[in-house]
Amino acid sequence: MTSAPSRTPRRAIAATAFAFLVTMMGTTIPTPLYSIYSAELAFSPLTVTVLFAVYALGVVGALSFFGRLSDDLGRRPVLMIAVALALLSATLFLLPPSLPLLIVARVISGLGAGFMSGAGTAAVIDLFPAERKGAAGTLAVTANTGGLALGTLLAGALASAVPHPLAMPFAAHLVLCAIALLCLWLWTPAPESRGRVRIRPHRLHVPASVRGPFARAVLAAGAGFAVTGVLTAVSALFLARELRLESHALAGFVVFLAFAGMAVGQVVARRTSPRVALPAGCGGLVVAAAVLALALATATLAPLLVAAAILGIAGGLCLNAGIATTVEQVPAAHRGEVSSSFFAGLYVMLAVPAIGVGLLAGTIGLRPAGLVFAAAVAALATVIGVVEVAAPRDRRAKAG
């Protein structure tokens, strides 16, 4: 994205961050509504987890096919495409629900999130001066996770307070998308030149200088995304079926805690070096997995809320450290591609475990499947944390 005129950068930054937040809201609005869909359409836990996870296919597809699009075409056109896709997804959710329609709506929502995850992060960083890259990275990830948090909170509150719980959250999101499109058009700078649109599979490239930190960051932040994904997919079912708590606001609040904690983790991570934040985040993920296992084993609410909050903060530490050691360390010409590669890895780790838990739940039950998953995440986070601490100081110094 080109430099904004001196009188408008604040508006451009605000419009970009708002569009980022609104687009990501759409991906979590269905979260507290899954128990309603499950009851009305007789969904199994596997169907719910697949319905949740298919949006990640849209994300990865957008990142894989269009990972360099904002580098070639300019940031604003890609941001507007992302918000338009979010608006289309909200429109589809307003139609009478069926499984095929919901899957299509989720995939389109994922496409919008994919365009926004890569282009939005790069766009926010572009709008800040070089000496404020850290603040830019924090704002980008906070807009991302803040949107995820607000989407589930808004949907849960509306579903509990107003008629038509499967319609009103998406109607509200449609209005927000329209406002975001207008703000982008009015306040963000147009690209100086337009490149060619290349729609073809593209091997997302990570420069050799950041490949080591990139691998560790994706695995660490991906572990956090994996737990958050499973929590997002099955928390409403767990509350309704195991705890007999059918409050949609409560289901939304559980996931809100995770994503709000992730936003808090961004702030904490910026006050320390990535080489400290990443191992600390991994340690937090181990604790979160243990508390989540307690919640599942005892079928109690309090440990579930605590686990969600710890998970969010730990995941935020890992995510922010990952952005700092990868996207912020490459030239602007490659920033969209590296950002897309980073988020593609995260969303793969978001989707696959959720489907795995759904499959396992059909065999051994939802709670035992969750316990197996919690143990696997704790093991992965422990390994990544140990590897990061043991990395030679000269390799980690670049991240500090």
Task: Give short descriptive properties of this protein.
80% helix, 400 residues, disordered N terminus
Account of the 3D structure:
It is a single chain. This protein is 80% helix and 0% strand. The protein has 15 helices and no strands. α3 (45-66) packs antiparallel against α9 (211-242) and α9 runs antiparallel to α12. The radius of gyration is 20 Å and the shape is globular. The two termini are 27 Å apart.
What's the helix and strand layout?
Elements: H1 9-28, H2 34-41, H3 45-66, H4 69-73, H5 75-93, H6 99-127, H7 133-161, H8 168-187, H9 211-242, H10 248-269, H11 274-298, H12 301-325, H13 332-364, H14 366-390, H15 393-397
Q: Can you give me a brief rundown of this structure?
A:
This protein has helices at residues 9-28, 34-41, 45-66, 69-73, 75-93, 99-127, 133-161, 168-187, 211-242, 248-269, 274-298, 301-325, 332-364, 366-390, 393-397. By secondary structure, it is mainly α.
